[in-house]
Structures are given as structure tokens and as C-alpha cells.
Here is the input.
Amino acid sequence: MTMFTFLTQFLVKMLSQLLQVALKYSQKYTVEKVRVLTLVKNRGKGGAVRLGMLSARGRHLLFADADGASKFADLSKLEECLKKMGNREVRLFCLFCVSYL
Here is the structure.
């Protein structure tokens, strides 16, 4: 077995286990709080993010990678700006970019 095959099988197993954990949380806390989305065809990270944002509910939506590049301490600044805008309808898209070397 090649290293690539081993890693592929390992990742598939880990993702399967992660999916089971996510589904349990969804059942425990209801789909109103935790929703699990799956893609029938692999659309890559961009497709997954797009599906998530289009399926999300709520007045404000925020996406950030889990790599720690986004400073969540700055979220309060964003919230403050939204409060100052009042009840006007606001379409806001936040994109956190990370340059991978």
C-alpha cells in the first residue's frame, strides 16, 4: 500500500467519523441550531463554502477558516458597525483571505 492510498483511506475514515459526530449534534440540538450539509459530488472547498452560506439562516452570516488567520476579537468591531447602520437592509460579505506559501 502506498503512502497516498493509506492517507486517502485514513482521511475518508476520519471524515466519516466526523460526519457521524456532526449528525449526533444535529439530532441533540435540532436542525435549528446545527445543520449538517453534504455534497453529492465533490465541489471542493469553494463549493462547500457556497452551499453553506446559501443554506445558512440568520440576519448576519460570517465565514472564517479554522486556520486562525482571522481575529475573532475584531468581530465586535463588525457588530458595532452593523448596529450603527440600524434597521436598514444590509448585504454584507466578509472574506478572510490567507496567503499560503
